Amino acid sequence: MRQERTRVAVVGAGPAGLVLAMLLAREGIDAVVVDHRTREEIEGTVRAGILEQGTVELLDACGAGARIGVDGARHDGIGLRVDGTTHRVDLRGHTGRSVWLYPQHEVLTDLLAWHRDHHTDLRLGVSGATVAETGADGAVVTFTGADGVPVELACEALAGCDGSRSVVRGAIPDRMRTDHFRALPFAWFGVLLDAPPSAKELVYASSERGFALISSRTPTVQRMYFQCDPAESTSDWSDARILDELQARVAGADGFALVEGPVLTRDVIPMRSYVCEPMRHRRVFLAGDAAHTVPPTGAKGLNLAVADVVLLAGALTDLLVHRRDEAVDRYAADAARRVWRTQQFSYHLTTTLHPEPGADPFDERRRRAAVEHLVTSQRAAAELAEGYVGWPLPGAGCSGTTR
Ligand code: DHB
């Protein structure tokens, strides 16, 4: 075993781990990031593509956002297409803020480049990362490096940024932990399509046949989803059947139709809501998917992970630089407030736009009334816009409008 020491050990080199280590590096705090995936695997993780303005401003302020302005697209509105009629929600008009369409794997590529340029300590391709010890003043993580050498890494704080199958989460004893979990009774059938965009802005469509989302990746590759049964099998769907289903969900009297093309990939994405409380035990802190999952509607996952680590970086800076522990003591409660608010946003948007198979007619009529309210009330649209562009991030380099 090689014995090593660092100030903060970060398990997981996804958005949460890489942004946390970047923020710590800017404060002069040493960190070691470990991940079992290789650089190629991390960059190849294809997820949702919407960045809140606060996320973009933070990446900009750190010098990791330059490509968003070049390869990303600012979206000032979204379309809510209900039973074949599109109602635009003017995000910028309602909030003065926007979102950016910029896929998560591009964010990861930019963050990895930032870390390479700043010579931080990333250990990718490690195996068997385990929390060996937790104490009042620190923790110990063990793993085997990509070079095959076993390492025992002692740290003053351990950040579990290791995703929904988090290993670090297990360091919070069961008797102290509450796992709030809700499975939703539908899933998304997701495809990448080799075709030009069908619309300038994202389209969230709700019809009797179910929900569909029309998004984009590049000028030649489109990302689309339609609501399906969680047990749906991708092999039962030919390209033609997929395209027919998507077309049927957006069809309307205005003649709007999707530009079709070959289906490049297909996947079924389950939907669940999950929150682990508390997000801290002693010197172990959870952030991002390690602590919570939101259903994908509204693309909050990455943005919420960034909000967690902005808080956490501030708290760890107070602890490790200024020797004040109030902020780390508050981390779990402060993070949980935004987590639950975002849970509510994502859950509400999802359950409003997705008809539930076999729903009680009373509940289904209520749901439809909520959809109608959303597209007829400017106040309801303003509330949706506020949550969609994201609530302001706490402090640190992300105030004001830079874009
Ligand atoms: C995408 C995914 C979402 O869940 C969403 O709300 C918007 C966009 C996407 O994959 O592009």
- What summary fits the major beta sheet? 8 strands, mixed
Span of the ends, CA to CA: 49 Å
Tell me the series of helices and strands, N- to C-terminal.
EHEHEHHEEEHEHEEEEEEEEHEEEEHHHH
**Unreliable sequence segments:** 396-402
**CATH top level label of the domain at 2-75 and 98-181 and 272-355:** Alpha Beta
Number of strands: 19
Q: Supply the helix-strand structural class.
A: alpha+beta
Task: Report the oligomer.
Answer: single chain
CATH topology of the domain at 2-75 and 98-181 and 272-355: FAD/NAD(P)-binding domain
Q: What's the name of the CATH homologous superfamily of the domain at 2-75 and 98-181 and 272-355?
A: FAD/NAD(P)-binding domain
Rg from alpha-carbon coordinates: 22 Å
Are any ligands bound, and if so which? 3,4-dihydroxybenzoic acid
Strand content bin: 25-35%
If you average the pLDDT, what whole number results? Answer: 96
Q: Per CATH, which architecture of the domain at 2-75 and 98-181 and 272-355?
A: 3-Layer(bba) Sandwich
Describe the structure using short key phrases.
403 residues; alpha+beta; FAD/NAD(P)-binding domain; 8-stranded mixed β-sheet; 19 strands; disordered C terminus; binds 3,4-dihydroxybenzoic acid
What does this protein look like?
By secondary structure, the protein is α+β, with helices and mostly antiparallel strands. It has a domain at 2-75 and 98-181 and 272-355: FAD/NAD(P)-binding domain (3-Layer(bba) Sandwich). Helices cover 34% and strands 31% of the residues. It contains eleven helices and 19 strands. The chain has helices at residues 15-26, 39-43, 53-61, 66-71, 91-95, 104-117, 239-250, 301-320, 326-353, 361-376, 378-389; strands spanning 2-11, 31-35, 50-52, 73-75, 77-82, 85-90, 99-101, 121-124, 127-134, 139-144, 150-160, 178-194, 203-207, 210-218, 221-228, 263-277, 280-281, 284-286, 292-293. The strands form three sheets. Strands 1, 2, 8, 9, 10, 11, 17 and 18 form an eight-stranded mixed sheet that branches. Helix 8 (301-320) packs antiparallel against helix 9 (326-353) and helix 10 (361-376) crosses helix 11 (378-389). The longest helix is centred in the last third of the chain and has 28 residues, at 326-353. The model is unreliable at 396-402 (pLDDT under 50). It binds 3,4-dihydroxybenzoic acid. 3,4-dihydroxybenzoic acid binds next to strand 14. The site of 3,4-dihydroxybenzoic acid has 11 residues, from strand 14.
